[in-house]
Design goal:
By secondary structure, the chain is α+β, with helices and mostly antiparallel strands. The chain folds into four domains: 2-217, no CATH class; 250-332, no CATH class; 334-393; 403-583, Protein Transport Mog1p, Chain A (3-Layer(aba) Sandwich), CATH 3.40.1000. Helices cover 16% and strands 34% of the residues. The strands form seven sheets. Strands 23, 24, 25, 26, 33, 34, 35, 36 and 37 form a nine-stranded antiparallel beta sheet that branches. An eight-stranded antiparallel beta sheet has the order 3-2-1-14-13-12-11-10. Strands 27, 28, 29, 30, 31, 32, 38 and 39 form an eight-stranded antiparallel beta sheet that branches. Strand 13 (175-181) and strand 14 (184-189) form a beta hairpin. It is elongated and about 95 Å long. The N and C termini lie far apart (77 Å).
Amino acid sequence: MASDWKLCGVAVLALLCLSYDLAFAKPNYCKKSDLDYFGDIPYPYPGNCSGYCESAGDPHYTTFDCLKYDFHDTCSGILVKNKDSSLAEIEFRAEFKKLPYHPGYTVIKSLELVYDDITNIKIDGDFFKNDASVTINGRVMTESIRTFVFSKTIQHIVKLFRYCNAVVVVDSMGFTIYWSDPYRLLIQTHPDKQADIRGKIHGTCGNFNDKKYDDFTTRGDKWTADCDEVGHSWKVDSQCQSCDDCKPCLPCKVNGPETAKEAEAICAMFTNGIILPCGENKADHLYKMCLNIICASYPERGGLCELINMNLDLCTADGVSVVIPDAICDLTVPGCFVGSIFVPVGESVYSTDCQKDCKCTSPNNVTCEPNAGCEVNERCEIRKTIRRCFCKRGYFLDRRDGKCYALSTFRVGGDPHYTLFDGTPINFQGKCTYKLAATKPDAPEQFTVVGTNLQPKPDKNVTVLAFTTIYVYDLVIKFSFDTSDIFVNGVRTTLPFNYKKGKVIIRRSGRGNRVVLKTDFGFRVIYDGVHCLYIRIPTIPFIDNVHGLCGLLSGTKDDDLMMPNGTIQGDTCRTGKVYCFVKGAKFNKP
């Protein structure tokens, strides 16, 4: 077993070295003869995450118990420190620096390894320039890369050497530290030594006790779901000032959208009234802490009860009686979990594959019955703590018939280029106000979109989309070229705007001045304020029921350049001129 482990480590180190040389075109320091120097020393390998701590990227942490989170700071922090007196004194520290081209993020600048307060190993420098330096007890090491340095302390033998443009430190306690570049540090525990280390250490690498959630423990032995609080508590110098622009710790962002969806579903109990906040806690604060611990320890739910009980202690201190669901912490109020969704007694939710309706009949008892499942245009997922069949991306739910319809898109962009509903691309220069898209009388709903093309520079023979006017229901909505001003029925309007409980919603989205208009029948307009406009409509209800520069939405490109009189026109300029109905507009806001 030990032999297999060693061989695996050797193979991985060789592969890491080869990949480094290929990527950075450095001289190959890995020679076959170097393998002779390994002897019986263990080396790190990226197998099961249990037993190794990693700081990767900018940086993302994986603790010895596989909890995953990110923490950004420019101070020196303690990665590993002995907690139990039966373990010899150790302290592994890392100093971080800012990434100049990526504000708010940091990478490892140097390492410091302290054994028994006697041996101090400091590794510093720029690996990419191949000038990393190693200092042991103040002495700069200048020996060749094959040199082993033996340091006999009270309870340790520490071996250090360079290999593959990296520094490897191995000690007799069972730790191997492998630092290959500012973006990757690995601390491995030898399988034969893990029993002696387990539960006897702490730091930002966690306590290695087979529990993920309690790796979020501060230097003062306080459990918290705030990973920023955890990280800052492990500063070497408590007076060190953290960077003002360092990014916050967001485990749900690190661990992917699916994990985040599951966490949002579980943590909704803090915002929907199932768990009431007490003391200094607020519902949104508890919700954020819940997201942190669930995402970081996913797929386990460890730490959820601790968070609830922490809030419960405050409630008790305030003299407030709080009821906690049985299904969460085995306390008093009935409920069930269906997958990751908490369901109060008497309520129902879809099963994890949406093939069944599942009802919580009594605490921790769920009965499920088959249902029709999701339609071909739907998919089973969790949104806002609810699991059911939702329309796939690119589809629209028509609440009048409950069906999901594909959306067709008409695009205007640049100076200007058009992509019609049926996919035909055309380029058309014209200084006019044009009917971009409008419904025919037989359409299920009515709308019209007109756009004004103007010549921004007299010496340039191009035009751009400057203004857009939308007629829908009894509203006239005007967007200016930078969308700083929105007019509804002639009145300057502050966004978001909601007309008749969702019949028309206008809001800003994303960065810049992008404005999104949505209606309850699926008609959407997206305008970025920089001459790019999208019009989207449900395909089936509006097929053969629109006209304008957008084309006919007939399902074929053959009639995209049809004139209003029914003739097919191959000249895009003539087709465009037909839909011009206001000439001589000026480049001013509406």
